[in-house]
Amino acid sequence: MAFRWFGRAQEAPQAGRKSRQPGGTGAQRFAAMMTGAGRVVWSPRDHSSLTSAGFIANPVGFRAVRLIAEAAAAVPLVCADCAHRFDSHPVLDLLARPNPAQGRAELFEALFGQILLSGNGYLEAAGEGQGGLPAELHVLRSDRMSVVPGADGWPEAFEYALGGRKHRFAMGAGPDPICHIRSFHPSNDHYGLSPMQAAAVAVDVHNSASAWSKALLDNAARPSGAIVYRGADGHGNLSPEQYERLVGEIETNHQGARNAGRPMLLEGGLDWKQMGFSPSDMEFHQTKQAAAREIAQAFGVPPMLIGIQGDATYANYAEAHRAFYRLTVLPLVTRVAASVAWFLSEHLGQEVTLRPDPDQIPALAEERDQLWQRVGAASFLSDTEKRALLGLAPLAEG
After folding, report:
1. Residue 6, by phi and psi: left (phi above 0), alpha (psi -120 to 50) or beta?
2. Nearest to 295 by CA among 109, 142, 116
3. Nearest to residue 201, comparing CAs of 59, 74, 81, 298?
4. pTM: predicted TM-score of the whole model, two decimal places
5. Alpha helices in the chain (DSSP H)
């Protein structure tokens, strides 16, 4: 009696099929089936491959990056110096319209997106504008930029590759033309570590689980089965010609979505034995959910916010939303805004600061109201001290 396994959408390669024909020993056939198995295949870890696999082709990574970038780009910024908070300032005017093709939100969304996907963000100052500030600001793609370290280890230039040519931005002669914002990397002096790199294993698992589910659907969402052959002479071996004919008929008439539910006609001692889903088949959904949760956690997004069920860390959606802003969005905006402010201060010739304004974030309104109530009820504080605690500029004398 011979067993022939069918039902999987992803069949073994042609070379493996030949070794499973009758004539070889059981150990040889088993060795042929196991050839290439057991080796984990990971996607490349370069920026382009990670972006393609983890952002373009993965809905969890796509949503996590977009959620952070859009939320961070919408956070209002406060411009101030050591003594004043400015309602209008040349820096604010430049950020409001950084270049003819982008507004403030588009520029910062692109900058945050580059940092999240590659760990590096590059902001170019172009032209001469008001008060020494650049006329325009542009976000450059991280995959095209490379750092040129000097003899002391610090970057002496940046090179931007485009269309087979490289444009060199020299550093050190006057205000820097490039603002490089990078995430912390423990083993690299010039480039940052992105959350996508930390989530690369979970991305591979999630994408592989999705591919497995698609293959199962292409096979009419049926589990594997076995064709059992009982010869008239009591032997269970097919001839090579019979084996090839059987495989060809199965592939042509019974595999693929268009053949779903098509009845199978068996002859010559062949019988179909239905197999149930194995425990590993049933666990694929849980594996995919766990991988999705790991991707969200690598980016600092509460899984609840991107529709991943089963996460009971936060009592409700509002609490998860506040944690998302407090632990992910505001630290990112604070770090990037400080780097951009220092970069523009070099061009302006005087130091200004940029920081997020949490009082204008609706998700943090409840915390803001509680703070204002506590400060307002503190009778032992003067009005000047209360304004300082709330981050407001002091009142003008008189």
Report:
1. beta
2. 116
3. 298
4. 0.74
5. 14-19, 26-34, 47-51, 59-73, 90-96, 104-118, 195-198, 200-218, 240-253, 279-282, 284-299, 317-324, 330-348, 365-376, 383-389
Question: Using an 8 Å Cβ cutoff, are 137 and 340 in contact?
Answer: no
Q: Which token pair is 231?
A: 């010869």
Q: Which of 182, 49, 197 is nearest to 111 (CA)?
A: 182
Pick from 129, 126, 142: which is nearest to 55 by CA? Answer: 142
Give the residue among 346, 363, 358 at the shortest CA–CA distance from 178: 346
Of residues 87 and 72, the one with the higher pLDDT is 72
How confident is the model over 171-220, as pLDDT tens digits? 887 889 999 999 999 999 999 999 999 999 999 999 988 887 777 777 65
Long-range contacts of 70-73 (CB under 8 A, 24+ apart): 70/109, 71/324, 71/325, 71/329, 72/108, 72/109, 72/112, 72/329, 72/332, 72/333, 72/336, 73/104, 73/105, 73/106, 73/107, 73/108, 73/109, 73/112
Identify whether the C-beta of residue 42 lies closer than 8 Å to the C-beta of residue 201.
Answer: yes
Tens of pLDDT, residues 381-390: 888 887 777 7
> In 3D, which of 87, 69, 68 has the Cα closest to residue 79?
87
Integer Cα distance of 16 and 31 in angstroms? 10
The pLDDT of residue 236 is: 63
- Token look-up 């952002």 returns 55
CA distance 27 to 33: 10
> Running DSSP on this structure, what letter comes out for residue 99?
B
Give the amino acid at 385. Answer: E
Both tokens of 143, joined, read: 């995959």
The owner of tokens 């900058």 is 111
Residue 21 has pLDDT above 90, yes or no: no
Say if residue 19's pLDDT is above 60: no
Q: Helices H, strands E: what count in the chain?
A: 15, 12
